[in-house]
Amino acid sequence: MDATGATSAERPERRIKSFVKRGGRMGTGQIRALQELAPRYVLPYRADAVPSWSAVFGREAPRVLEIGFGMGDATAKIAAALPHIDFIGCEVHEAGVGALLQRIDEAQLTNLRIVQHDAVEVLAHMIPKASLHGVHLFFPDPWHKKRHHKRRLVQGPFIADLVQYLAPGGYFHAATDWEPYAQQMLEVLSAEPLLENTAEGFAEKPAYRPLTKFEARGLRLGHGVWDLVFRRRA
């Protein structure tokens, strides 16, 4: 029984989320992008139907899902650098969605779509199993305090579920600037029997992942960044 008088059986199970709600101001450009570009590039979340992603993009190509793209700078650069791959970006915050829409418009990207919803639920309801070429998770909330570690996204049950959506040979690429979380990620991913590490421990930063301004500043100050690239066994 907890402080509210509810027993463990009565308390709802904590659901894994890929985000934490935060406030933020919207710029006029972001507001305009949401109004004018969202109908073309933002897909509504649906729990009752799996989209035909080939129809959405107008072609059949490898697909990569990004969990929480923030303001979308790296997402847009990766999509521009890899035009043969289609990208699905999941983000709950409107400011980030608006910012990425601006970047899509500026770069005239045709291989990037957005779902403004929790990526955990997008995976469960909108992505066919064994269909993804890759999944990106860059700089997720590390939940620094020990009592909050249970809120970290990369944990055994989530990874066991996520790997079901990777095609054989598909990859999961995570990056973090918080070493304790990097070590936890390495342990969790190494323990998943359907995944194999592409490196001995942490990976070199793949060429397609650009440095963020925050990351570049941290590296100048001597802070570390850890990349992990695991592949689903064939």
Automatic annotation (TrEMBL):
Pfam family, one: Methyltransf_4
Pathway entry: tRNA modification; N(7)-methylguanine-tRNA biosynthesis
Matches recorded under SUPFAM superfamilies: S-adenosyl-L-methionine-dependent methyltransferases
Reaction catalyzed: guanosine(46) in tRNA + S-adenosyl-L-methionine = N(7)-methylguanosine(46) in tRNA + S-adenosyl-L-homocysteine
Positions contributing to substrate binding: 145, 177, 212-215
Domain of life: Bacteria
Keywords, sorted A to Z: Methyltransferase, S-adenosyl-L-methionine, Transferase, tRNA processing
MF terms (GO), sorted A to Z: tRNA (guanine(46)-N7)-methyltransferase activity
Positions with a binding annotation for S-adenosyl-L-methionine: 66, 91, 118, 141
The UniProt record lists the keyword Methyltransferase: yes
InterPro entries: SAM-dependent_MTases_sf, tRNA_(Gua-N-7)_MeTrfase_Trmb, tRNA_methyltr_TrmB_bact
GO CC, one annotated term: tRNA methyltransferase complex
E.C. number: 2.1.1.33
PANTHER family found in the cross-reference section: 3-DEOXY-D-MANNO-OCTULOSONIC-ACID TRANSFERASE/TRNA GUANINE-N 7 - -METHYLTRANSFERASE (PTHR23417), PENTACOTRIPEPTIDE-REPEAT REGION OF PRORP DOMAIN-CONTAINING PROTEIN (PTHR23417:SF14)
Family statement: Belongs to the class I-like SAM-binding methyltransferase superfamily. TrmB family.
NCBIfam families membership: tRNA (guanosine(46)-N7)-methyltransferase TrmB
Known function: Catalyzes the formation of N(7)-methylguanine at position 46 (m7G46) in tRNA.
Protein name: tRNA (guanine-N(7)-)-methyltransferase
Organism annotation: Inhella gelatinilytica
